[in-house]
């Protein structure tokens, strides 16, 4: 699994990976915000599916213990070959199309690889980054070289926001805050900025984060990205 970590989020959430693949994925997870976010979204689905098995109308065959052990070993080997073969197919397709300005992702379903063509801009995006790329960003006003913006979405429970943040160096602890028209504040999400930072020389990728506010968009005056020491890095008007 060493080269297909991003494809194994669902299998990891459902506990389907063997020990070697599980340990490799957990090592990858520590350094991949997009997989961490996707795993969080899948956690609820995994809990619902836990313990649910197929419905059988006929009684199962009377296998002996040796037969069951042999079947499990062969199934494990088959699954490993299937995952690795899928990656090879997807990689070959991406090499073919990258010269034409396109990137190829790989959808896993039923053991077959289905190439999905996407533009360079939208290839392999994490959930927050994809939502931001598909939306209409509201640019913010930053301090000390910080820049960024928000894409907002009305929800039944309040307001969903995707944040893009660049030009920030660490180490810092930050929060995205919504400020109502009456002056009340609510923390929408929080995170740590590593020493290398985001959207700066040597670490050019911006930070993308999800957040939620209990207020409707029309009830919000503005949003702030602040440090835990009280400094405002970015202000975005609703």
Quick synopsis:
With 238 residues, the protein is of the alpha+beta class. It has helices at residues 9-13, 19-29, 33-49, 65-98, 127-134; strands spanning 102-109, 112-119, 138-139, 141-142, 147-155, 158-166, 172-180, 185-193, 207-213, 220-227, 232-237. Strands 4-11-10-7-8 form a 5-stranded antiparallel β-sheet, with no helix packed on it.
How confident overall, as mean pLDDT?
Answer: 74
Based on secondary structure, the structural category is alpha+beta
Mass-distribution shape: globular
| SSE succession | HHHHEEHEEEEEEEEE
**Radius of gyration, rounded?**
22 Å
What separation lies between the terminal Cα atoms? 43 Å
Strand content: 25-35%
- The proportion of residues forming helix, as a percent range, comes to 25-40%
What's the story with the biggest beta sheet?
A: 5 strands, antiparallel
Query: How many runs of DSSP E, i.e. beta strands?
Result: 11
- Total helix count? 5
What are the segments in which pLDDT stays under 50 over at least 5 consecutive residues?
52-57, 83-122
Strand order of the largest sheet: 4-11-10-7-8
